[in-house]
Amino acid sequence: xxxxxxRALIRAAMKAPYLxxxxxxxxxxxxxxxxxxxxxxxxxxxxxxxxxxxxxxxRNFGLSMSDLIQEGHVGLLEAAARxxxxxxxxxxxxxxxxxRASMQDYILRNWSIVRGGxxxxxxxxxxxxxxxxxxxxxxxxxxPSNQIYREVASALGxxxxxxxLMDSRLSGPDTSLxxxxxxxxxGSSDRMDFLVSDAPLPDEIVGETIDTxxxxxxxxxxLDTLSERELKIILERRLSEEGATLESLGxxxxxxxxxxxxxxSRALEKLKVALVKHKPEMxxxxx
Length: 287
Fold this sequence. Notes:
This protein is 68% helix and 0% strand. It is built from 14 helices and no strands. 17% of the residues are buried.
């Protein structure tokens, strides 16, 4: 059904009459000034040949021709919406860029699950690498890859590393990390099993847990050496997410903010002494 619809569209496009410059100009004015849908239809149908011809140039990317034609038609409509007939430029010249851009954007979004061509230079590399490589390889059976990369990088204004990376991406299809490495069935390993994990090793996790528990115990014992008022100030100033201000603590305790600061400084010194007592090597770290 889809193939039949595509063939019908192509037949209709090929039967559509060409537009003379005067007729094209008149239709473009009718569409721009009056939003005449009939004028828009005539303009777009007369240029569907251009869409189909351009879609055929991108057929080697493995995407459906009908989808490419549909995306090209979207670009054609965008060109019609932006076209300014008073500039005396043929519509086909103006529309070519929009048709190509629409198709290229569609290819970049659907060719791979990993988005490529995010910059103009990368986009040019994606669509021109194969053509440039084939041209450079003519007349030589074994042209070194680094020479090809150097020539392509110079022609497109990108680095050789970018050329090599794009070449490797274009050389093969996407592979699922859950795909088995062999066809042995349920017992075979997936590609995911061989990825290097950035997570800490089990012994590192255990060591960090033990160290955290020890530090919490040392801090708890040190806090026991503080008076009730000192403990309140340290808890609210240093050990809470909000971090109370000197003014607010002074208001709640009925003292000045300077007095709160003095008590805080004394409490911190007491904590330091208590921590060094439990862990003497901390004295060297503080020195």
